[in-house]
Design a protein that fits this description.
Elements: H1 2-12, H2 15-22, H3 27-34, H4 41-56, H5 94-103, H6 118-146, H7 153-164, H8 181-194, H9 196-199, E1 211-212, E2 218-219, H10 235-244, H11 259-270, H12 277-281, E3 287-292, H13 303-307, E4 312-314, E5 317-318, E6 329-335, E7 339-347, E8 364-370, E9 387-393, H14 410-414, E10 441-446, E11 453-454, E12 463-469, E13 472-480, E14 496-504, E15 516-517, E16 521-525
Parallel strand pairs: 3-6, 3-16
Antiparallel strand pairs: 1-2, 4-6, 5-15, 6-7, 7-13, 8-9, 8-14, 9-10, 10-11, 12-13, 14-15, 14-16
Length: 527
């Protein structure tokens, strides 16, 4: 025991190691979220592999196949230091981990998993601690060996448990001021003296922009007016951010304010978000009810018929964070027992439907469907859990000017020209390059990141129509309910499936995995 304590004291004395302890980003919490319960530990591991590894890597080192599409970057759990902490020694408590798993981290691609059973979420907490412990033991071993030590397994375990043990939870001061006008006014004074330099005079995050996290990744101050608080807008959480800072980020701990003064500052910050902003920033699972009608027209569906369906607001989050306004996505659905129509409408100030230059990016939208007892990874499914994707692209419904290149190889045949020794994408059968795009939509299948594949031509059953007016896209995707398994996810009246949404904004240069996506929601078809 004495040997382990001496070892740990020498390690803590090394500044480089201390930096490692506090240098991790809040993404470590997020990842724990996607995993699942472990009664014994294997369940958590299996669910981590199913839901988390695509972003965070199989070993939890932040190098998953989808990591290149994400900013902020996925957390490396093998170097456990956490930003959203409420303990005096900056080590996360189980409650801290549970909070992130349950509500996600608004302002990032870490989604909430409140729909999981509490026991499953608690098991995720346990599995994250397994990853933390393994990473800490490896760090301690390397540091010890550099100093000529050869610690035993017992020494490593003891030292890791010692450093990772959460401290006392921080509490709101007993004299926490009420959130009245007087407290807000006092808080504004404190804010101007200490916070405005980074977060801006009005809280829009437009102060000092040249900032980096301890891992070298660029970051920017939070825009409080949008109501996006990674650790929630609950007073204790905000108080902890102010009092303790956010380890690994430029957000420092506050040492020059009394507890009651920090309470005034909390009240002022909570006065900055626009009314209802939390509903536009935080994901909540919804039910999209497909209203049954007597007959869905083959042509245009009237606004009167659409008006009879419930329009559900859906939050979508950019996987590569940017400060664009919320697109205000709204979804409604109709079916007649034979066919279904799903309507998406969202705000988009620019119509991007031209693909003439290499630097042109188009507006797109997709619906992702899955039926099964356990939903797969939201990012395009998983092995053995194929998702069905219905895709709309703005350029497909823009009138195309015919050219000899467009008509290749028919043009060469009609003009008795010698065929060149290459094939265009269309001549090779690439559905994305097909000449007839009048159907407007496409079916794709995916069983994990990087596996997205167009279904065969005979399985292209999704039709789409669209309009852009007054800065809003309206896209309607249609398909028969009952289809073969090879053609996609079959639906039926009275049935239920999981549904998710994606939007690409051409003005933001979105493409491929750089897009805005939702969490899983529930699609229910009226009988």
């Amino acid at each position: 025991m004495r040997k382990a304590n001496r070892l740990w004291a020498r390690i803590l004395a090394r500044r480089r190691f201390v930096c490692l302890l506090v240098g991790m980003t809040a993404w470590s919490l997020l990842v724990s979220s996607l995993c699942r319960a472990e009664e014994p530990a294997t369940n958590g591991k299996l669910l981590f592999e199913r839901h988390c590894a695509a972003c965070h890597g199989e070993k939890g080192d932040g190098n998953g196949v989808a990591a290149r599409f994400l900013y902020p970057k996925p957390r490396d759990f093998t170097k456990p230091s956490f930003r959203l902490v409420t303990t005096t020694n900056l080590k996360p408590s189980d409650d801290d981990l549970m909070n992130v798993i349950t509500r996600g981290m608004p302002g990032s691609a870490m989604f909430p998993f409140a729909h999981l059973d509490p026991k499953e979420r608690q098991a995720l907490v346990g599995h994250v601690r397994v990853l933390m412990r393994a990473g800490m033991m490896d760090l301690i071993r390397k540091e010890a060996e550099e100093g000529g030590e050869k610690p035993t397994q017992a020494d490593l375990e003891k030292a890791a448990d010692q450093v990772l043990k959460p401290g006392e939870p921080i509490s709101l001061p007993p004299d926490m001021p009420a959130a009245n006008a007087e407290s807000v006014a006092r808080g504004k004074v404190f804010y101007a003296k200490g916070c405005a330099a980074c977060h801006g005079e009005t809280g829009k995050g437009d102060g000092q922009q040249n900032q980096k996290n301890d891992d070298g990744m660029p970051t920017s101050p939070r825009d409080f007016t949008r109501g996006i608080f990674k650790g929630s807008r609950e007073s204790r959480q905000l108080y902890a951010r102010i009092a303790l800072g956010m380890p690994g980020s430029p957000m420092p701990a506050t040492a020059n304010l009394k507890p009651a003064e920090m309470g005034d500052l909390v009240n002022f910050i909570l006065s900055l978000p626009q009314p209802g902003s939390e509903m536009r920033a935080e994901h909540h699972r919804s039910v999209i009810s497909a209203k049954r009608v007597q007959d869905l027209p083959h042509g245009v569906i009237s606004e009167e018929m659409w008006g009879s369906a419930v329009q559900t607001p859906i939050i979508v989050t950019p996987l590569w964070w940017r400060s664009f306004p919320d697109p205000d996505l709204r979804v409604s659905a109709l079916h007649d027992g034979q066919n279904i129509a799903i309507r998406l409408t969202w705000r988009d100030a620019t119509r991007n439907d031209r693909m003439l230059r290499p630097d042109d990016f188009e507006d797109m939208a997709a619906v992702q469907l899955y039926r099964g007892p356990a939903e797969p990874f939201i990012g395009m499914g998983a092995t053995g859990q194929v998702v069905d994707a219905w895709l709309w692209r703005a350029s497909w419904q823009r009138p195309q000017a015919a050219t000899a290149l467009d008509d290749y190889p028919e043009w060469f045949k009609g003009n008795n020209a010698e065929m060149p020794d290459f094939l265009t994408a269309r001549a090779a059968g690439n559905l994305s390059a097909r000449a007839d795009k009048s159907q407007g939509g496409s079916n794709l299948a995916a069983a994990g990141p990087g596996s997205v594949t167009y279904r065969p031509k005979t399985s292209q059953l999704v039709a789409a129509t669209s309009t852009w007016s007054n800065g809003r896209w309206t896209v309607i995707l249609r398909r028969a309910l009952n289809v073969k398994a090879s053609d996609g996810v079959a639906l039926e009246a009275g049935g239920h499936s999981s549904i998710a949404f994606a939007i690409w904004d051409g003005a933001a240069r979105d493409r491929n995995g750089q897009k805005l996506i939702s969490i899983w929601h529930d699609l229910k078809l009226e009988k």
